Every structure is written in structure tokens, then in C-alpha cells.
């Protein structure tokens, strides 16, 4: 069963084996969070999301180094959000967080945020306040960092007036730039984006459109100047699925209920002997040092998850 347009948590049916639960301290059950590699700590950083327990209205940065979870963020924490955009800036060795629905308390939400925050190389929270206009408050958007051009790319989502913007915004580390190419992927939310560093393009796939029941399965690529429809169809709609680029194997990894790989020309389904249960609004990020795609949590049948998996290019490993 697919999520209704604009919904944050959905009913999702499972496909494969049950996942193990991580032992000891960790981020707990959560969905709607974001994950990205933090080069300053050589670890995967997890921020945001709906979660149970603790001060859910204040944000913490969790880090996974391949062995254990730890909180390493310092300073006054930012207000917590669910469904923000999260991406890493490898040159600054930091993680960027933009937008999302404001969390007021357990399962209580306020208006979307339009703030841009950075967990810097020392994992201190820094709010970025650029001169001039920006994307404005929004949620259910997607973003990726183009390391070749040094630009954070934001597309789609839903703004504070329930509009579905179709513009591209790019952050150059100083200010926002609005781009309006002649062609674009159209209105959509709950889509996924990842940066293909080998080909120098941002890959966008799936999501949901404002028109109820419209779940595109197309794939688009952004080169900084124009959108290109790279594939009109693919391995089923990906509403709430997540993607990460595997730089070692030069493929974009998609996971929601099945594992699919994009090489720039073709989507390929793979069927490993073990895999996480199907889910949506989970975290997915690539660790370039350990050369693994890391998956955490998400929503399944309206329940938050707390399992941790790693993809090594051949199979999923429960941690």
C-alpha cells in the first residue's frame, strides 16, 4: 500500500527476512530522518526524524563509525525536524541539514522549517544565514551535494502554503541561487536524490505527485544547467524510498522494498540472500572509507524501526 500524497508515515508491506536490532546505545526507533557521511569524524551522521523517547523537540547528531553509535554534536542543538534534507559537504568535512517539519513533541508537528544548518568539521551546530532569498520553508523535498561544483542542490517538496514548487535551489556555501530550467521533473515529494561523482550529475527518482495516486517511476539527472530524463520507467514507484551513491562500484543504490542499482543507463534489481524488510522514510548513506552503504530505521506498517544494515556491493549485512 502506498502513502497518500504529502503523508509522513505510510503503510508498507514486507518482502524478506526480519532484521536484527542493534545492541546497546543508539538512535532508537525513528523514521523521517536523514543520513550523510561526516568526513570530520569519518562516520555516518544521522539527524532528524520522528522518534520515541528523550527530548524529541531538540536535535542531536548521532554517528556510526562501523562499530558503535555515539553522540558527538556540540553546542546549542537546533530545533528538531522530520523529513529534512540531509547531505554531506566533503570539502568542509561537514553535514548540511535543510527544512523539514518542525517537531513540537511526540507525534506533534509544527510548520515546516526554512533554516539551513551545518554540523561542522568539529560537529558543532552552525546556523547558516545567507544574504538574499532562499528556498523557503518546505518538507518532503530531496537534496544532494554536487562536490564537483561545490553546490548543494535542493528540489521539490511541499512549502508552508501547501504548494509543490518545481524550481531548483543551489547553495554555494555563501548564498542561495534559484534556477528555473525549461524542463524539470515536475511537482513531486517523497522522492530521492543522490550525487553520482563519477559522472558529475545529481540523480533523482520516484516520489509522489500532487495529483492523488500519481507515483512516478522515472529517473532524472541534473548537471547544473539542465534536467535530463534518463529513464522513463524503472523498478516500480519509489515513494519514500532512499538512494545513496556507491563511489567504489560507481552505482546509485536504491532501497525501499527491493535493492536496485543505477549505472547511468539501466536499473538492475539484485536479489541478495538477506535484505532489510521493506520500508519508507529510512536513512541511507555511503561510507567511502569502509565502502559500504548504511541503512537505518524507517517506517513499516506505520511502525518506526531501529534496525541497522550495511550493503557491501553483494549482500546486506545486519549489524
- Derived from helix and strand composition plus strand pairing, the structural class reads mainly beta
Cα distance spanning the termini: 28 Å
Strand content: 35-45%
Low-confidence stretches: 1-23
Computed over alpha carbons, the radius of gyration is 17 Å
Total count of strands = 31
CATH superfamily of the domain at 30-241: Kelch-type beta propeller
Could you name the CATH topology of the domain at 30-241? Neuraminidase
Per DSSP, the total helix count is: 0
Task: Trace the largest sheet across and list its strands.
Answer: 2-3-5-6
CATH architecture of the domain at 30-241: 6 Propeller
How is the main sheet built? 4 strands, antiparallel
Give the CATH class of the domain at 30-241.
Mainly Beta
Keywords:
4-stranded antiparallel sheet; Neuraminidase; 319 residues; mainly beta
Overview of this structure, please?
It is a single chain. The chain contains no helices and 31 strands. The protein has a domain at 30-241: Neuraminidase. It is mostly beta strands and 319 residues long. The chain has a four-stranded antiparallel sheet, with no helix packed on it. 0% of the residues lie in helices and 42% in strands. It is globular and about 45 Å long.
